[in-house]
């Protein structure tokens, strides 16, 4: 970051030097020389004075007046200062002409054989010099304004990125304990029913914990790892299901791999098992996941059993879905679609999620 900043600073200095060198060469050297007339030393001293004054006002305006006056919303004061400075600039050039008798020297240079006769001053050249002065002021103001806008934009983007990172860290911290709370409850129930199934569940849980510990530290992970994680979760849930639950799973064995935010799909899958299972009634859970041309499509359907909402798991489920929606907004913006239908004659909970990976 520091190397990049130093490089930009050096490049900016080089551009300023080259810009002023080109400007001074064209306006104050080549233009007078193009007339083909040898001019007095006093004229070249005036050109040097003129060029030095323009450089001085440019950087005084750039480093002091603009940040200290203009950017402090003191616009009238900024305009008044530059108006007075412009008049003083022209006045100094006129005083120099009077002191060095510049009109007479220039007359002798261009018409050496014609006697010099004093004439009223031609203010056309003074107006031209004033316009050049305000051109320098305008350029310095424009450059400073653009740099300020770029700096503020970079700061805004950096702050937004920091906000996204902090929010994602917070959201994942909420989702992960929530997931383990439910899974450990499932394994605890299995220990009273089937020890072998409980051992299998612990092995799957350990593999899932490795995923959570290492992959969720990253902003993105491979879709293949995320889907393997989902498969393990579903198999873990399947161990405790009774014969009254009809579980339909459609997840492809082979698909085009891509990048995805870790544990982004889990809350929707988890929600099916929290609300879609009844201990007394027939229930059905349908989960379909497809990947087509870098687009992930997740569709879930499950019944809604109000009794589950009074359990600790049911009360916590809303947190996981809310956080996941927030993560989708932060990470994918307009590159995802989420449709949730929870009011229908079939009393089913439908989720249709599409993500452009």
Automatic annotation (TrEMBL):
InterPro entries: Bact_2-comp_sensor_kinase, HATPase_C_sf, Sig_transdc_His_kin_internal
Pfam families cross-referenced by the UniProt entry: His_kinase (PF06580)
Residues in Signal transduction histidine kinase internal region domain copies: 167-244
GO CC entries: membrane
GO molecular-function term, one example from the UniProt record: phosphorelay sensor kinase activity
Positions of transmembrane segments: 12-35, 41-65, 77-96
Key words of the record: Membrane, Transmembrane, Transmembrane helix
UniProt keyword Hydrolase present: no
Entries under SUPFAM superfamilies matching the protein: ATPase domain of HSP90 chaperone/DNA topoisomerase II/histidine kinase
Gene3D superfamilies documented for this protein: Histidine kinase-like ATPase, C-terminal domain (3.30.565.10)
The protein, known as: Putative regulator of cell autolysis
Organism in which the protein naturally occurs: Belliella baltica (strain DSM 15883 / CIP 108006 / LMG 21964 / BA134)
């Amino acid at each position: 970051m520091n190397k990049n900043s130093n490089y930009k600073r050096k490049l900016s200095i080089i551009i300023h030097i080259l810009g002023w060198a080109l400007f001074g060469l064209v306006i104050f050297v080549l233009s007078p020389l193009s007339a083909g007339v040898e001019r007095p030393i006093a004229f070249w001293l005036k050109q040097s004075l003129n060029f030095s004054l323009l450089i001085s006002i440019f950087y005084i305006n750039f480093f002091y007046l603009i940040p200290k006056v203009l950017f402090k919303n003191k616009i009238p004061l900024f305009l008044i200062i530059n108006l007075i400075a412009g008049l003083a600039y022209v006045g100094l050039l006129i005083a120099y002409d009077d002191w060095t008798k510049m009109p007479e020297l220039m007359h002798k240079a261009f018409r050496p054989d014609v006697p010099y006769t004093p004439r009223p001053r031609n203010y056309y050249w003074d107006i031209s010099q004033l316009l050049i002065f305000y051109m320098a002021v305008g350029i310095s103001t424009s450059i400073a304004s653009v740099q300020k806008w770029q700096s503020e934009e970079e700061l805004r983007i950096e702050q937004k990125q920091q906000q996204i990172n902090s929010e994602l860290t917070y959201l994942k911290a909420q989702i992960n304990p929530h997931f383990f709370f439910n899974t450990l409850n499932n394994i605890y129930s299995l220990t009273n029913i089937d020890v072998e199934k409980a051992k299998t569940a612990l092995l799957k849980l350990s593999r899932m914990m490795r995923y959570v510990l290492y992959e969720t530290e990253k902003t993105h992970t491979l879709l293949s790892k995320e889907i393997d994680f989902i498969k393990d979760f579903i198999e873990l849930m399947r161990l405790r299901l009774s014969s009254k639950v009809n579980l339909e799973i459609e997840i492809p064995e082979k698909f085009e791999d891509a990048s995805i935010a870790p544990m982004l799909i889990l809350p929707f899958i988890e929600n099916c098992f929290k609300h879609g299972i009844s201990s007394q009634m027939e229930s059905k859970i349908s989960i379909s996941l497809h990947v087509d041309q870098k687009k992930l499509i997740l569709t879930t359907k499950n019944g809604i059993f109000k009794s589950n909402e009074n359990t600790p798991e049911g009360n916590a489920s809303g947190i996981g879905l809310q956080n996941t929606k927030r993560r989708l907004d932060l990470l994918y913006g307009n590159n995802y679609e989420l449709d949730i239908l929870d009011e229908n004659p079939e009393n089913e909970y439908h989720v249709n999620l599409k993500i452009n990976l």
